[in-house]
Amino acid sequence: MLRNLEHRLVWTALVVVTVYGLYRVQALFPLVGADDRVLHFYDLDAFLAAYPSGILGIIPSRVCSLSAAMCDVPRDIEVGKLADPMLSSGYFVCFLGLWLSMWVEGLYRAMSTQLRAEGVLHWTDADDAVIEHRRMMFSRVTALCVVVMVFPGTVFLHFQGWPTEPAAHEMLWSMTFLGALAGHRLGTIAALGTFGRRLNRSGGQLRLVLGHSDGAGGARRVGEFLAFQGILVSLPITWLSFWLAMVWSVPEVRAFYGQWWPLHLGLLIVAMVIAWYGLISPFYTFIGHYRASKREVVAAWRAKTVGTLSDLQSVFHNSDNWRDAKSAIEESEALTAVSSRISSMSSVPLRASVRGLFSITSLFPLFTLGLEILVPNEKGFVSLMSQVMNLFGRVLG
Q1: Cβ atoms 55, 253 nearer than 8 A
Q2: Closest Cα to residue 136, out of 195, 189, 188, 186?
Q3: In three state form, how does the secondary structure of 64-85 look?
Q4: Can you tell me the mean pLDDT for 253-265?
Q5: pTM recorded for the entire structure
Q6: How far apart are CA 245 and CA 249, in angstroms?
Q7: Residue 269 has pLDDT above 50, yes or no
Q8: Taking every pair of C-alpha atoms in the chain, what is the biggest distance, in angstroms?
Q9: Ranges 30-44, 255-269, 286-300, 362-376, most confident
Q10: Residue range 197-206, pLDDT digits in tens
């Protein structure tokens, strides 16, 4: 009852904030207009000489009042670009992740039901109850942690005091509300991912179903559930690590967004902890059990068939009539076909397309941060980052 009520409240809150976001879409994704005035804290000519098209299309600027003496008429290359790319991209990633995350509970229940129905995993209602208790606790604690970080972080780091203008209040409360929803969903992901840890208890052995249509002994649904979790967790990690790398490596970006890095770093740490509990740890735990079960299946099949193929070949060569030879051939074909199906079971219970997406999605944030450490030169950073983004885009579509 409480779970269903909470789920309905989250759905309702997400629908309401999405409708409001569509109503205020111009405020979420403001574009620099030809009649606007923009503010730069750096030498724009030198910046455009180094980055003629901006950094991945980003030209740091801020739309300001017409009466501001320091404001300039926007260049042609700035007109039509996002006036606040960090804010706009943050809202986009947040809404995308929130809507995708609303399917995670359904995927978990489908996975649990299928595994128990087919006997792949020793899993009971008591196990589901433990996971549900963790979900309620993790989701609320994570939501609270994110709110505690976002609200004062925005007030003191960005506004440097309590905001007075309506637009500033709208930004503050929308970020706080979306942060609470995002924290709730991240906590849910972490809690559902801990089912992999319960496989370590006594009786948690997998019993793969040989000949299962999924090609992974009935375990592919688990792998793809974890892959979906990985995609969800990678969204905030990718966004946070990208902007942290930009702030640390590009002075012009740091001039506009440098005040955000403590908050972003804190949120990145939270997201990485969630990734560990909701993806990395359960994934490798489950893969360890899956591979151990596969090895047992392969060993059992080999024990049952040892010497059989050699005997069938002897029957073929020593047979006096074609019927016995044909029977030996057919039995050899059946035996080797089953042996091939067993040995060809994937070492990771994911279909090939999901394996490619999962690996790129998971490694991209770490690659971004590693790239910043290894390639401190801005031009080298931008060049390599562009190649990674292009590769990432090709994998996704």
Answers
A1: yes
A2: 188
A3: ECCCCCCCECCCCCCCCCECCH
A4: 87
A5: 0.77
A6: 6
A7: yes
A8: 105
A9: 255-269
A10: 766 664 556 7
Give the span between the Cα atoms of 391 and 376, in whole angstroms: 21
Q: Which amino acid does the sequence have at 79?
A: V
Q: Which of 272, 297, 277, 278 is nearest to 347 (CA)?
A: 297
pLDDT for the residue 144: 93
Residue 58, beta-bridge partner list: 55
Cα 353 to Cα 292: distance, rounded to the nearest angstrom: 24
pLDDT of residue 200: 63
Burial of 164 (0-12, 13-18, 19+ CB in 10 A): exposed
Q: 193 CB contacts (<8 Å, ≥6 apart)?
A: 226, 229, 277, 278, 279, 281, 282
For residues 120 and 178, give the distance between their C-alpha atoms in angstroms, rounded to a whole number: 38
Would you state the structure tokens that stand for residue 353, as one six-digit string? 């397309």
